[in-house]
Design brief:
The structure is a homodimer of 369-residue chains.
Chain A lengths: L17 E5 H17 L3 E2 L9 H9 L5 E3 L2 H9 L4 E4 L6 H10 L4 E6 L2 H14 L4 E5 L14 H10 L3 E6 L11 H24 L7 E3 L5 H7 L4 E2 L9 H4 L14 E10 L4 E3 L14 E2 L5 E4 L5 E4 L11 E5 L3 H5 L4 E6 L1 H4 L1 E7 L8
Parallel strand pairs in A: 1-16, 2-9, 3-4, 4-5, 5-6, 6-7, 7-8, 8-9
Antiparallel strand pairs in A: 1-10, 10-11, 10-15, 11-14, 12-15, 13-14, 16-17
Helix pairs in contact in A: 3-4, 4-5, 6-7
């Protein structure tokens, strides 16, 4: 689709619905996270599954990140095409045809990948051998999410298999997605304590197998400060900190963690107006609702689900916006919201009176394979 | 993104996750709905917000549909670019810049649009005057959803305004989105009875204003047979019948309505396997969960939410698929699932042993403006 605005347009001229970045807020978030990693002596490898943009990945690397993570082979390809030279696929790939692409990609960038099965390691090794390329391999352990990853005690045997296939063992992938969204600090601390103890068990199992474990990598925006303090992780994968969303804003703030600002918005417009409600032109084809409905920004109003293409605002009659008015929405969940759009419209100078400084393609939109 | 398969590939070669159409099932659905409209003497204008594809719209028009509906100006543009010559934007457009595009589009196709405000009519008339083009105008009434549309009693005044601005008044838009998903026939019948009585009131108000009301248009896959029997609607807008989804399958079947088959699937693969669960590579970036989680097709297993990129299957241990196995998912809701993908992979000969007959671009993917 055509972008919703052009460089130089005022905010008013941005067509709706559109995915808009408040650049000033984003840059402050970028700097705060870079500073946190620097002062804690920990590597930052932000998760690009969130923003899917080579332009934004370049900003993160420019601010000190060692590279980025992605979840899918096609995401890695899209970002490599955009010039990103150090990517970790922090997820398993089991299809031989995809592993061929992984092996091809490894010829042109520094690439890492996660494994959690013997079959996965065998197939990866076969594809790399055929292509004559090499990747770094992380063994993923399940640190409490009950999704991918082996039990920590099994990490030693898998690491040994990685090495015996002549692959580079790079360490342990220990990410706990669900822990990010536990509302209280106490809950997140408990989840991280458990995750960190499992990561230590994995380190012990690997060391017991006579193999050096160079790195434990993991953490997200909801838990990274707790994980950094625990001292086992050497690399943080947080991604959402850059944009934030309603779901993260609902978390109790972690002490000693930087305070991040909302930097991602969906600009919408009132396209129908009833006596006691207003209808905006952004439904869940314009923002993802898997983590709940969006928050209406700067307006004392609730957003109710109006289906794929509409949102219904209810408020005190005086607070209801008029037909044609702009309404800014804070998405419930940033990652899948970004994945609905083809472009970012990046605004400098604030949402009220700013103008469009950049239009960035969301390079890996739809890159689910 | 690159398509997940090429024409001639066997089903096994389709990369995952991918949006797959069972062509045989889709064609049976297409024929059943065309036959229903024919035997009931009612026009069919399927909603293309569901499939967003010019190729599929052409199949529907070839089977007797008078044209298609869309929800957004950019959807209409994308389908017009794909050769569709009769489109109804069954939704309000209020932004002057968008109305300019509507007026431009009306120069090259037969175009209709909905209005529900004086401001909307004025702006539409101004844009058409400037462009020197013409559209058909439907007045939308609220038939119970509480979203867009005026009260039936207000339809006469709006119709008069349409006429007084020199626009073509085409009738009443009377769609009840929420009624589609009421589970029991009795609930849907009650909702339709109410909607139909409101549509009659609108007809009376328009006739009272001395204006002929040529058509009442509306209905969806959950309610069209009830609306057709009620005899007020002259045109059906159902769209989902072509693909179906888990949400519609959960409805109690309407008597005398054709039985539609599931024709849309997400092909996924087991990419991690625990002792008591399997993880597939399709999360809610590959299928929409606004109407609930997908159903696992042909496998006695439940799909649990594994986040953006994963689904977690739990089953009796013997029923759990193995690492690398294919798992077919029936999306919870077809429309927003389609909107996540760039291509349809259309399979002839069934999901087990068929092959790829066509790869269709989802022309209006992301067309939210």
């Amino acid at each position: 689709m055509t972008a919703a605005a052009q460089i130089g347009d005022g905010v008013d001229a941005i067509d709706t619905p559109a995915l808009v970045i408040d650049l000033d807020a984003m840059e402050r978030n970028l700097a705060r996270m870079a500073e946190f990693a620097r002062t804690h002596g920990i590597r930052l490898r932000p998760h690009a599954k969130m923003h899917k943009s080579a332009a934004i990945a370049r900003l993160q690397i420019g601010a000190g990140a060692v590279g980025v993570c992605v979840q899918k082979t096609s995401e890695a390809e899209a970002l490599a095409d955009g010039g990103i030279a150090d990517i970790f696929i922090s997820n398993e790939v089991i299809a031989p045809a995809k592993l061929e692409r992984v092996a091809e990609l490894a010829k042109r960038i520094r690439l890492a990948i996660a494994v959690d099965s013997s079959l996965g390691i065998e197939r990866l090794a076969a594809a790399l051998k055929l292509a004559g390329s090499m990747v770094e391999v992380f063994v993923e352990i399940d640190v409490g999410q009950g999704r991918c990853g082996v039990a920590p005690t099994a990490a030693g045997a898998l690491a040994q298999q990685v090495v015996s296939h002549g692959l580079r063992f790079a360490g342990v992938q220990a990410y706990h997605g669900r822990a990010q969204h536990l509302r209280t600090v106490a809950e997140r601390e408990a989840a991280v304590r458990h995750a960190v103890s499992l990561a230590r068990s994995a380190q012990a199992a690997i060391s017991g197998a006579g193999i050096v474990c160079p790195l434990v990598t993991g953490a997200g925006t909801g838990s990274f400060a707790i994980e950094a303090a625990a001292g086992v992780l050497g690399e943080l994968q947080a991604g959402s900190y850059l944009f934030m969303d309603r779901d993260y804003a609902d978390n109790e703030p972690t002490p000693h963690a930087p305070a991040f600002e909302q930097a991602l918005f969906v600009k919408s417009q009132v396209m129908s107006r009833g006596h006691s409600h207003a209808v905006v032109d952004a439904g869940h084809k314009a923002h993802a609702i898997d983590s709940g409905l969006p928050r209406v920004w700067g307006l004392d109003s609730e957003y109710a689900n109006g289906g794929d293409e509409h949102g219904i605002l209810r408020a005190h009659r005086e607070a209801l916006p008029a037909l044609g008015d702009t309404v800014w929405l804070v998405p419930g969940h940033c990652d899948p919201t970004v994945n609905l759009h083809d472009h970012y419209v990046a605004v400098r100078g604030g949402l009220a009176h700013g103008s469009v400084e950049a239009v960035w393609t969301i390079d890996a939109r739809g890159a689910v394979r």
